[in-house]
Give the backbone structure.
Amino acid sequence: MQKEKTRYICDICGHEEAKWAGKCPACLSWNSFSEISLPPGSKHNSSKKNSSAKKHAISIAEIASDKNTVILKDCGIEEINRVLGGGIVSGSVILIGGEPGIGKSTLMMQLAQKISNTSKVLYISGEESQPQIRLRSDRLDIKESGELIFIFTSDLYTVKDTINSLKPDTVIVDSIQTLFSPEAGSVPGTINQLKYCCQELIDIIKSADASLFLIAHVTKEGIIAGPKSIEHMVDTVLYFEHSENDMRILRAVKNRFGSIDELALFKMKSNGLQQITSPENSFLIHREKNNPPGICIATIHEGSRVFLVEIQALTVPAKGGLSRVFSDRIDSSRISRIAAVLEKQTGVRFSDQDIYINVAGGMKIKEVGVDLPAALALYSSRTGIPINQGTAAAGELSLTGEIRSVPFISKRLKSASSCGIKEFYSSKASLEDSSKENTDSKSPKDKHITAETINELIKILFK
Ligand code: TYD
Ligand code: MG
């Protein structure tokens, strides 16, 4: 007779060991292992495995298509539709993460109200009390609706029972970190609990063909909350990026049903989040006087839209002559590379400077087209020569100082022109690209100034 198998699982991170250990080798927690017994037969038998593998292996022609079962549902909020890739796919699981207070619950309540106009929505609040939810719904002017139902619990079994009996079309869990099941260890809020509750919910939701939104808290360090550990289980992951003032940026970092380039933009108002549907100039700062040195406007192409953002640079002599780069919105190694290219090509020293880079409005930028405006902002700060207002740039910088073209030049030019930009700097090659892309003769070609190298361009711009 086969014996039961014993395994030891870390309550904190879910790491599995065959023997008990005082310290978890994965998360370094002490005394976190619990013993679990696996039923006999869970051990794989290699001869059985071979025959069952043959039985289950199929060719691509035998794989069932999902073409007709993917139903996109308009969620009533255009910006959410955009970031999800057109709407909510029925039966999909969407994770919404962000720092506490950024507006996750507000957005989900607004979404719940919109969806409940046409289908049944269950909102599970494990975090906030009834008066708190009432206060928010009054603020958001959410009227009584029979199709929007709330439950206040953090017990996974109550949640499962409610889903089974109410059969909602959409379930919102606020937040996944508050859910608890005794099956996943005795400590609430651990990664084990998070993974277990998430998987249980996904199973029940997929069989009911409903959609599931999971709210998850992210701390700056991402340690306590740990929503990263469930990203692989869900279809779509949306994160609220840190942003300044009342601006909120929601970005898809994973999407099984759409692109991950799109952004959703909102402003937090006294009555909830308001969509920003034409955001070209939302990140620009308007000044009465001319720009101080260290500022250049970048045209960034994200998803299907162009945004104009202000890149701010500051260079100060480094203590001990050892240069450091402080840039959390643009990758700091990219900034170091740009500074090195500038030093080599223009002879202006950056290697003895501390460099600070900021993107006004809080957007994180990965696009290569930010190289050129970042270089111009850096040069402007280092030399103390300001760049005129109404100047924007886009281009990638090679290690040898050449400016390379970036896609969608004519779209960038048009958006820049609509935001009052008078001079647009980019690569020589982009002139040809823009005439290929351009079908509109009204595009502001005469304001398009180009150069082959950064040195050449700096000579034109800074005269
Ligand atoms: P909330 O949605 O509770 O954040 P999260 O769920 O991500 O923790 O939003 C909290 C903040 O938003 C809080 O500071 C109050 C503010 N707020 C508004 O400014 N306007 C509103 O209409 C609402 C509902 C909240
Ligand atoms: Mg909340």
